[in-house]
Amino acid sequence: xxxxxxxxxxxxxxxxxxxxxxxxxxxxxxxxxxxxxxxxxxxxxxxxxxxxxxxxxxxxxxxxxxxxxxxxxxxxxxxxxxxxxxxxxxxxxxxxxxxxxxxxxxxxxxxxxxxxxxxxxxxxxxxxxxxxxxxxxxxxxxxxxxxxxxxxxxxxxxxxxxxxxxxxxxxxxxxxxxxxxxxxxxxxxxxxxxxxxxxxxxxxxxxxxxxxxxxxxxxxxxxxxxxxxxxxxxxxxxxxxxxxxxxxxxxxxxxxxxxxxxxxxxxxxxxxxxxxxxxxxxxxxxxxxxxxxxxxxxxxxxxxxxxxxxxx
Length: 312
Prior knowledge:
Elements: E1 6-13, H1 16-32, E2 36-43, H2 52-63, E3 68-72, H3 73-82, E4 89-94, E5 102-107, E6 119-121, H4 124-133, E7 139-141, H5 146-154, E8 160-164, H6 165-170, E9 179-183, E10 198-203, H7 208-217, H8 220-244, E11 258-264, E12 267-277, E13 280-289, H9 293-307
C-alpha cells in the first residue's frame, strides 16, 4: 500500500434505491484514485420522508462523521432551497447523468371504467405538472417505493404512475411485460431540477485536497447542468418571486418550478415549467451555446416577466 494513501469517508443513505444510484460513482472513484482508500459509512434512514436523505447526510457532514455525502441531485436541490440563506454545503462533483426524462407507466390490459382511475406521482413537482397535461385523469401525490407503486398498477388499483425514466431503468423495472410505457421528452414534461443526477456534497469547511479530487473525477457536463439549473432557480427567486411574495393573486413555491439543462457538444438547451395557478402555467425553452449560458438564463427570466406582467 502506498505510504501516502489517504482515507475518504463517504456517507451513503441506507435505502436500496440510494445504493443503486451511488454504486457506479463509487466504483469510478475507486478506479481513478488508487491512492485513496474509501470507507463507506452507512447513514440509516430516520423517518420515511423525501427530506430525510438530505437531512441525515448533511447532519453527518456537519458532525464530521463523513467527508463526502453522495445523494440524489433532486433531493439535494430541494434540501438547499428549504434552507435559503443557511446553505453550508456545496456540490463538488457529479456522476454522469442518467436519463432525466419522465415516463407514464400503465397496466397493459384495462377496461373502459378503469380509464377514469387516478395516476400516482411520487414527487410533488411531477404531481403539479401531470395534473395540467392530463385532462380528465386526476393525479394524486403519494410517496412510496417504485416497487410498491408498480405493484399497485399491476393490480389495477391505479391507472398508472409518472416516474423518472432513469430510476426505472436503474432498478430494472423498465421491461415488465404486464406494463406499457409512454416516455415524455424533456420539453413536453420538464424534469425536476437535479433529476437523474448523483452528486458529491461536502461541507464548506472540507479539505481543499478532497474538493479538487472530486472535481477532477466528476463528469464535467453533468456538474455544469446542475449548476445551470441551480442558477435559474436562484435568479427566479431573486428577481421574480421576491417581487410577488406579497401579492395574494399569486402563490408560488420555488420547489414547484422544474428546470432541466442539457449539454451536448457545447450546445445547451434549458427547459422550464412554472405553475402559476391550478389551471395556468409557463413553459419556456431556450437554446444556445454553453458559453452563452448567462445570456440564455436572463433571456428566460425576461420571458417569464412578460408572461407575468399583470402580477409584477
